[in-house]
Amino acid sequence: MDFTSFLTSLGTSFVIFVVLMIVFAWLSSRPGNLVVYYPNRILKGLEPMEGGKKTRNPFSWIKEAASSSERDIIAMSGVDTAVYFVFLSTVLGILVICGVVLLPVLLPVAVTDDGGKSQTTSKGTFGELDNLSMANIRARSARLWAFFIGCYLVSLVTLILLWRAYKHVLWLRAEAIKSPDVKSEQFAVVVRDIPPVPEGQTRKEQVDSYFKAIYPETFYRSMIVTDNKEVNKIWEELEGYKKKLARAEAVYAGSKTTAKPEGTRPMNKTGCLGLIGKKVDSIEFYNEKINEFVAKLEAEQKVTLREKQQAAALVFFSNRIAAASAAQSLHAQMVDTWSVFDAPEPRQLLWPNLKIKYFERELRQYVVYVIVALMILFYMIPITFISAVTTLKNLVKILPFIKPIVRITVLRTVLEAYLPQLALIIFLAMLPKLLLFLSKLEGIPTESHAVRAASGKYFYFTVLNVFIGVTIGGTLFNTFKTVEEHPNKLVSMLAASLPGNATFFLTYVALKFFVGYGLELSRIVPLIIYHLKRKFVCKNEAELKAAWAPGDLSYGTRVPGDMLIVTIVLCYSIIAPLIIPFGVLYFGLGWLILRNQALKVYVPSYESYGRMWPHINNRILAALILYQITMLGYFGVQQFLYAPLLIPLPLLSLGFGFVCAKKFYPSFQHPALEVAAHGLKEVPNMELVFRSFIPPSLSSEKIEDDQFEDASSQVSRSTSFV
Amino acid sequence: MDFTSFLTSLGTSFVIFVVLMIVFAWLSSRPGNLVVYYPNRILKGLEPMEGGKKTRNPFSWIKEAASSSERDIIAMSGVDTAVYFVFLSTVLGILVICGVVLLPVLLPVAVTDDGGKSQTTSKGTFGELDNLSMANIRARSARLWAFFIGCYLVSLVTLILLWRAYKHVLWLRAEAIKSPDVKSEQFAVVVRDIPPVPEGQTRKEQVDSYFKAIYPETFYRSMIVTDNKEVNKIWEELEGYKKKLARAEAVYAGSKTTAKPEGTRPMNKTGCLGLIGKKVDSIEFYNEKINEFVAKLEAEQKVTLREKQQAAALVFFSNRIAAASAAQSLHAQMVDTWSVFDAPEPRQLLWPNLKIKYFERELRQYVVYVIVALMILFYMIPITFISAVTTLKNLVKILPFIKPIVRITVLRTVLEAYLPQLALIIFLAMLPKLLLFLSKLEGIPTESHAVRAASGKYFYFTVLNVFIGVTIGGTLFNTFKTVEEHPNKLVSMLAASLPGNATFFLTYVALKFFVGYGLELSRIVPLIIYHLKRKFVCKNEAELKAAWAPGDLSYGTRVPGDMLIVTIVLCYSIIAPLIIPFGVLYFGLGWLILRNQALKVYVPSYESYGRMWPHINNRILAALILYQITMLGYFGVQQFLYAPLLIPLPLLSLGFGFVCAKKFYPSFQHPALEVAAHGLKEVPNMELVFRSFIPPSLSSEKIEDDQFEDASSQVSRSTSFV
User: Fold this and answer.
1) Contacting residues of B for A671, CB less than 8 Å apart
2) Residue B511 dihedral angles phi and psi, to the nearest 5°
3) Which of B39, B429, B430, B665 could form a disulfide with B550 if both were Cys (CB 3.0 to 4.6 A apart)?
4) How many angstroms away from the CA of A119 is the closest CA of chain B?
5) How far apart are the first and last CA of chain A?
6) Residues of B in contact with A675 (CB under 8 A)
């Protein structure tokens, strides 16, 4: 890549960014789009735009985002989002400090030397960047000392800011946990691996007597986990019919207002997808169906509560300290029985995973790890195979009906160009979902934990395949084989190939922030989908609301993406310091734009009180260590005699990670008692706490308030007398 | 070694054993020796010999030991000793089962083959053993299948018996912990890493308010850990003078009964060791000294309680569940503050280690690990150096006063023969103490934990240096260098050298059990020391009692010794199955003789409720894995094509260890709540519980009962008004 095409690429990205900004400014002010650009505010019952529409200029969002405090973020989007911003601002801080110190020093040092022409920091003839990088320094030159000191500076700044950030996140977490509001999850623990029910006892009696003996004063009540698969299915069908009924009524009401005052009663066919079968009156039909399913649901609820009890339970305590202490204590002598963890928010609980046994969970975990490891190493094999098979010719053979399409020349050309990549593109798009699915297979009991696990896997995938893959070139598997035979080669291989890819990564980062964040802010895709749905699909309010539902920040995939940039920028920070401003722009723009999105768009789907942070911290450290080791290798390549003086750096990073893991991590696993001991502003209504954990498919409006308990106690009675 | 000398060696050992048995039978029945052979019974206030002296024949101890139940052992010597016997009987069980199955099969299979003459299981010409071992099998012979199946048998039997043993020990531990007797350590936790005292509060107020907030109902009281170095010194001096006074009075009383009725008042010199200085009347002098030191002690006690408070405390709870749960909960957000563990028995607490800070402990641990690793690898270097320096010639130069001794020819010869080994002998004798000292340096807070840590280090030392060292020959360091360069060579090196050392280890095991256990039972050395002391040193009852104080079973050094035998026997069990009966004899005799010693001699110095077991279990597993890997290597040496089929074995062992660590280990770290929730037979007297933790140097008879508390609360008052 030469300098012109580098500039062209940068320029194009920038133009796209500017266009997207203008589009955003224009679209977001149109009233019809408010639900796409301000859903979080609307759902919270706030005015979409602060201070009304008139006082706003198109760029006031920048001021609003920049001036918003951490408290605003927590109020609007929760602690998890605030922690994500701690991550962004920490990395931004590191890069700004390093940039301010390093750029004025390293660039002149590099540009005034003239010995490194034998090396290059760009494939091709991009000499201008070479002059600004370490590649321009003669081997063994004393000028390398400047870069050497730079290495130490970057490491120390990173560690110091990480330390401060960890402490800050810990404080955020503590503040949230000790808040005087009653949060039902703080009064409950989840018990798994309950041993078989003894003769003459029900599951509920077993659990109650066990916990009453240990917590005579603070035990409140237990809820046995049931297998809700069947009841959920019925409930979902029922909800589906309710929606369809509402929709049919809306259509009917709509048709009434026009020409015929009695309206056209909507009709539908009863068969598959409403395409075949008998034609019936929709409203009548759905009403019948609803009645049928309500009865079915009630019957199934009883059966579920009575007969589908699992070896897991939720146990409720009447105060926070008891629950916090119970969640971290060893209850049974055999650790694989009565194992306990602190309850997450009710919405996060993955009920089907609760019943999985201790060692089955362990086994599943390792099996999933092996699958993921194989996937990371060998994902190219099936994709190459599929690409080879899915040529147009083959496709036509298998799917004869696409023949007419293939005949059109333009389409044919496009298809032939993209088909080889199609499998890869689909795979990469599906990957986060696939990893989340695999993580849930591990038997992880909460949504947020599964997201963390998936995010970790995604991180390894991107760093190993994108960063190391692109750098070294060729598939990871080949590298892996070489490395296995000569373990020490990895470092020198990385170090030798790094400089050659500087330009590639510069443009990559630029593309990411200009186009990526431009699309993020302008929300073009959700906007189009929303308008299409509104026009052609949605018939009533509920459906419309579903159409603009914003989703959450999805930091399960966002963090690994950012982390890849962190890795790239850190690894090049000394070799080609010019990458630092690009990193600053990425994290600066990201901070600003996502701040806007967090305040106005995304609605968090759960709250884990910043449990993501230890993972973020460790992955930044991993990136730092990778950087330190490659620098060690690169100084070796540059024949710098004092290169071994860099060895303390990775050791320091490891020590830092160790200290963090020891000092901070446990209070991310469990709430510390001193935190849980803070007072509440009101006596908790334990009944409400209890009911908040009843899954919607089991709580029926028709059944009286205490029915849930009754149903269970009926079970007790009926089975204990059998 | 040829067959004759092998038999001679065995015979000699056996003769020594028989002689020692006869000596024991004769000496133990003499009334004057009862305190040496029955101290545990005497200290417990029981009749030294069960059923009186007359009904006994000299070998009735065998019947008594064999018929004693586990309950007897726990009553006489505690759970730790019972767990030690679980270890002995488990290994014994493994060896008996394997012996019964393997010997009748493998020996005929080996002896009827004739192809292995190229190999040998003994250095020299000991063909008789060769015929009975795997070395007699031709390479690639189908007969190897018998040995192959033997490998699986030994592994499976070991794992099954270990599993049963672990469950049994867990049960023993639970029974002991849930016993209805009040044990003061079950009501206390130790708190370390208390943050600096806030302005205007005393340490005690800080601790009390912190725990009262978290445990408003169950918190009883706290005891601040103080720096007792000074007060301990004074207290020991005082106790010394008290002993000397008692002795002087005994001498005076003794002199009175003889010729002069007024007696000779004993005199002593005040200077160093009583050799120089002014001559004074002993009784008067010691009385003066005692008065002086009592005053000093009281003053120092006050100063200690007031001014030498450390950042650690004991916290007492009014019930067992609260203490058990507090010991395993995270109290502070920062894990390196307010860290907590369950209190050990008061006598086990290592007060000086309590104040060491969290990360200092971590650091100390790693430093000690490095020192021990260096010691294991390089211990021969300083010893060789010292041996080279300490020739007689050099010694005479340094210590001229030994010249007359050197002139005696006999002594000279003996000295010249033993001097080279002297450094090694002294080093090996000191090693357990040295390792215990190093373990305490780690900052470990309890005696039993320090013993476990030292025992682990000793295990690595013996297995690595004795077993692998002897087998491979040469120093471990040379091996280490080879292994580092070619990691796969270790296995084949071990496998190739193992058979050659079979005879050496056979005689080693025989020596160990015949001579070792013979000496153990006959207690010749303690007997001689006791009689010498009684004759020349002891003047009163207290001193006499100190002279026959039996000490404990000291399994810190015993277990590693046994473990070496386990390793040897397991590793040779298939190659030279003849070693199995030797192993059976070792553990059978050991079980019997130590049973006698546990019931009658040793007095346990602490009780950790079997916390040694997980370590024992893991080390047996380590020995098993070593055996499995060497067998894999040896089958390779024998060119057995199906050798890779042994690979599942080490994996199985690792999996077993993993499952044990997950399933059982945590309840050895902390008492499970379901166990602690068992009722007590009486309401605990919390005052007594509290007082039992006051170190003797701080509890003075003169001070009133509640003085301890008062002293501390005075401090509170005096400092809080400053």
Assistant:
1) 330
2) -60, -45
3) B39
4) 34
5) 81
6) 333
